[in-house]
Specification:
With 554 residues, the protein is of the alpha/beta class. It has four domains: 170 residues, 3-Layer(aba) Sandwich (Pyruvate-ferredoxin Oxidoreductase, domain 3), CATH 3.40.920; 174 residues, 3-Layer(aba) Sandwich (Rossmann fold), CATH 3.40.50.970; 68 residues, no CATH class; 107 residues, Rossmann fold, CATH 3.40.50.920. It has an eight-stranded mixed β-sheet. Strands 9-8-10-11-13-12-18 form a seven-stranded mixed β-sheet, sandwiched between helices. Strand 16, helix 15 and strand 17 form a beta-alpha-beta unit. The chain is globular and about 85 Å long.
Length: 554
């Protein structure tokens, strides 16, 4: 059993604060939790909502229709009803209206504390008790959230929560809640998982210019900077950020940056610089709908081709696309390792859906486990930074060591000096491109979910993992033999392995958050797939499992 609640209001009303508080509380009660955010690109006004899905089994996707709608901005009620249809129960921050439970959250908080801003905590108490859970479950989460503001503020919020519970008491039992099943209490967003993966992998410099939806990586790493002896720098722009990363990794310091589409457009010359200098630069690209500024706070999977071909000229790079917070943690660590092993740029594709999703899971390992930097401990006297090797990976020594390290952004000889020798040009270009063979052999395998003999295979990548997985379960419950093939790594692609997995499928559908089927065309390009159907969404909202299952039936 599971249920979905939608908390909706204007920007500036604390929708995210209330949603985050409830998500943490439900996880602490032992429920499985999956929450997502939908918000407009404005500081105040508009209509934002925060969906919290709770259940008795692990959850991987949102849902379309809420069972409980909590409306903080009364004037948005008509709009929300049009968006979601009739839901089971509406709690309205207003005077009574037909078909609603009316609670004036701000007025109730003002009566108790003199501070209407604490109305969100009244709403939290209403929601928790309405579902039959004890309001005391909020106490530790309220204390953790408001302790920096002093015990007086904590106590005031506790009173507000209890007042909300009192107001909800007459309605307890109206909505049967999921049972507490002992699910993990640890909750993590995609951005937090990327940040922790980078920190534990040994990244010592993170520099970025804030840009939705990647900003959360910057702020979370800043909060952990002392714990991991890391420098976190807000650069003046994205050009500075990528060049700072290049400078740091040249000096031997593992470094990473993060941005979104417009910022990444500014970075591409620096990405090409890392390609020519053979530097292990790691970039997180948080996708959002374009072109230009587009829909800056919505989600998309439109930058796959952009990432794959970013930078002028030809040079090897790896491109990853994790699907869940747990996978984001693992993939980020792998991205740092691959960058250093093969001395080449690596891009991690995220998006607003993955960046902001909250999901409970077993706690992620916070232990520092720096990846191998593959540095030459004792360079020879005749050291060549770009020595031509069978696998294309040259021995890497640090500047300032016993080796004389020369680098140049022009084409260069094996010792790093600029050259116009066209024979040397071909030899060094071939050397760089040979890295792709080793990178392909080490590529992260796609993940299969569902029966081995599935007739219908849903091919997906990145953040559509959860909705597709849920769709497979929904279709399976109806007797359909469906499976999912998810790609957490986009490039290089293990074409032969993919072909073998898809040969027995009667029907293949690629699920993508773009208008052109970018990943499907890439699979066809490398010979991993012949023909397939496309299921595309590009309105700025994420897929749900229900939607994919419904469209797959047609």
């Amino acid at each position: 059993m599971d249920m979905l609640m939608r908390i909706a209001g204007e920007a500036g009303q604390g929708v995210e604060t209330l949603g985050g508080l409830l998500t943490d509380t439900f996880a602490g009660l032992g429920l499985h939790v999956f929450s997502t955010e939908t918000y407009m690109s404005r500081i105040r006004g508009g209509i934002n909502w925060f969906d919290i899905r709770i259940g008795e089994e692990e959850l991987f996707s949102g849902r379309e229709r809420p069972n409980l709608l909590v409306v903080l901005a009364p004037k948005s009620l008509d709009f929300l009803r049009r968006q979601v249809g009739e839901c089971d129960l509406i709690v309205l921050n207003d005077k009574p209206q037909p078909g609603t439970i009316a609670v004036e959250f701000g007025e109730e908080a003002k009566k108790l504390t003199g501070a209407p801003v604490m109305g969100n905590t009244v709403a939290a108490g209403v929601v928790l008790r309405l579902l039959g859970y004890e309001v005391g479950a909020l106490d530790s989460h309220l204390a953790a959230r408001f302790r920096p503001k002093g015990q007086e503020v904590v106590d005031a919020n506790l009173r507000c929560a209890r007042r909300g519970a009192e107001l909800a008491e007459p309605y307890v039992g109206y909505l049967p809640p999921p049972k507490q099943v002992g699910a993990p209490g640890f909750v993590c967003t995609g951005n937090e998982a990327i940040a922790l993966g980078a920190a534990t992998a040994g990244v010592r410099l993170y520099t970025a210019y804030p840009m939705t939806p990647s900003t959360g990586i910057l702020t979370h790493l800043a909060s952990m900077a002392d714990e991991y002896a890391m420098v976190v720098e807000q650069a003046e722009d994205e050009i500075a950020a990528i060049n700072m990363v290049c400078g740091a990794v040249y000096a031997g310091v593992p470094a990473m940056t993060g941005t979104s589409g417009g910022g990444f457009a500014l970075m591409v010359e620096g990405v090409a610089l890392a390609g020519m200098l053979e530097l292990p630069a790691v970039i997180v690209l948080g996708q959002r709908p374009g072109p230009a500024t587009g829909l800056p706070t919505r989600t998309a999977q439109q930058d796959l081709r952009f990432a794959l071909h970013a930078g002028h000229g030809e040079f090897p790079k790896a491109v990853f696309a994790p699907g869940t917070p747990a996978q984001a943690y693992e993939v980020t660590r792998q991205a740092v390792e691959v960058a250093h092993r093969f001395q080449t740029p690596v891009i991690v594709l995220s998006d607003q859906f993955l960046a902001d999703m909250r999901k409970n899971m077993p706690p992620l390992d916070r232990t520092p486990r720096p990846v191998e930097r593959h540095l030459l401990a004792d360079p020879p006297a005749d050291y060549l930074r770009y020595a031509d090797t069978p696998d294309g990976v040259s021995p890497r020594a640090l500047p300032g060591s016993a080796a004389f390290v020369v680098m140049d952004s022009d084409e260069h000889t094996e010792d790093g000096h600029i050259t116009e020798d066209l024979t040397a040009r071909v030899r060094l270009q071939d050397k760089r491109m040979r890295k792709l063979e080793g990178m392909a052999a080490a590529a992260r395998a796609p993940e299969w979910y569902g029966p081995a003999d599935a007739e219908h295979v849903l091919v997906t990548w990145g953040s559509t993992y959860g909705p597709c997985r849920e769709a497979v379960d929904l279709l399976g419950a109806e007797g359909q033999r469906a499976a999912m093939l998810h790609f957490p790594q986009i490039w290089p692609l293990p074409a032969e392995r993919v072909r073998a997995l898809l040969t027995t499928a009667r029907e293949v559908t690629c699920i993508e958050g773009n208008a052109t089927g970018q990943f499907a065309s890439l699979l066809r390009q490398v010979g991993a797939l012949e023909e397939c159907k496309l299921m595309l969404r590009y309105d700025g909202l994420p897929f749900t499992g229900e939607e994919i299952a419904r469209r797959a039936r047609c």
